[in-house]
Amino acid sequence: MIAADQVSKWYGEVVGLNKYSVDIGSGITGLVGPNGAGKTTFIRLLTGQMQKDNGSLHVLGEDPFDNPSLMQKIGYCPEHESLYFSKGAVDFLTSMAMMHGYDKDDAVDRAYKCLDIVGLEVQKRPIGTYSKGMKQRVKIAQALLHDPKLLILDEPFGGVDPVIRVKLFELISGLAKKGMHVVLSSHILYEVERIAPSVVLMSEGKMILQGDISHILDIVEDYTHSIILHSSRPGELGAALMQRELVHGADIQTDSSLLVKTKNPSAFYGALPDMTSKEGFDINGVLPVDNDLQAIFDRVVRK
Predict the structure, then answer these.
(1) Domain extent for 151
(2) Lowest mean pLDDT among 68-77, 99-108, 155-164, 230-239
(3) Would the pLDDT of 152 be above 70?
C-alpha cells in the first residue's frame, strides 16, 4: 500500500523527516509518536500536499505529489477542523462531492450515504454548532465521499470524549472489515492498541520500530504512565479512579484538569467510556504527558 525509502523532508533548517523508511500493508496501521515526531509531515507527503526532498515514496504504487488521479483513490481526514462552519453537514458534503466531479443529484446521495456510514443523523443547524465528536464524523464522511481505497486519518481521536472515541474505533474498524485500508496517526499508544494490529513508532522524524503492537506494549508493560484528564469534577474523578485501583496517583492541576499516574494503561483507558456514559463523569479530554511519551519511546529504542 505504502512504501517509503530514505525519505527526507526539511523545513528550512528544521528536519521534518530524516531518511525515513517504512512499508505499510493492508488493514489498519497506526502511526504513533509524540508531538514533533514527523507523523503529520509524513501524512502530508502521502496525500500529495508536499513534495519530499530526498528518497522514494509510493502510495498504491504511485508517487503522490502532483498526482490528481491518485488522490481520487485516497480519502483524507485532517487533524484540524477544515470545515465550512456556516453550512449544514449535507450542504457541506454535497459541495465536497461536487468538487470530486459528481453531479448535484449524485453528490446529494453520497452526502446522505456517508452521513449514514459514520452514524451521524442529518442536522439542519450549521456545523459550527456541532460537538467535537460530530465534527470528527463529518470530517470522516467527507473523506469517504469518493469511495477511496485508502483512508488516511490524522489524529482522528484528538479532543473527543471517551464514549465518542469508542464509537470512532467501531466506525474505523467496520470500514476496515469491509475492505478499506486505513492509516491513522495518534500520540496515544494505547488508543492505537484498541484498533490497529500493526503500528509504526516515530520520533524526531525517524522510524523507531514497526510491528505487532502487542510486542511494543510488552516492552513498556511496567512503565508508569502520566496522563492529564479534563473534567469539571477532577477531584471526584481522581477519587473514583483511585478506588478502582486504575491509578496509583492523582493530582488536581486546575479546577478542570487532573494528572494521574498508572501502570495499567490498558485497563485505565478501557474504563473511561463506562465512567463517562454510565457514571456521569464529563471527561472532555485525555492527553498523555509529552515528556512521559518521549520517555516511553526512549525505552523502546533501548530495548
Answers:
(1) 2-217
(2) 155-164
(3) yes
Please check whether residues 140 and 57 belong to one and the same domain.
yes
Q: Which of 217, 238, 267 is the last residue of a domain?
A: 217
What is the CATH number for 261?
3.30.70.980
pLDDT exceeds cutoff 60 at 176 = yes
Residue-level pLDDT at 234:
93
Mean pLDDT across 225-249: 92
Count Cα atoms within 13 angstroms, Cβ side, for 200: 25
Which residue type does 26 have?
A: S
State mean pLDDT over 5-16: 93
* Count of domains for the chain: 2
For residue range 59-83, what is the model confidence (pLDDT) as tens digits? 999 999 999 999 999 999 998 888 8
Cell of 21: 523508511
Domain-ending residue, one of 174, 189, 217: 217
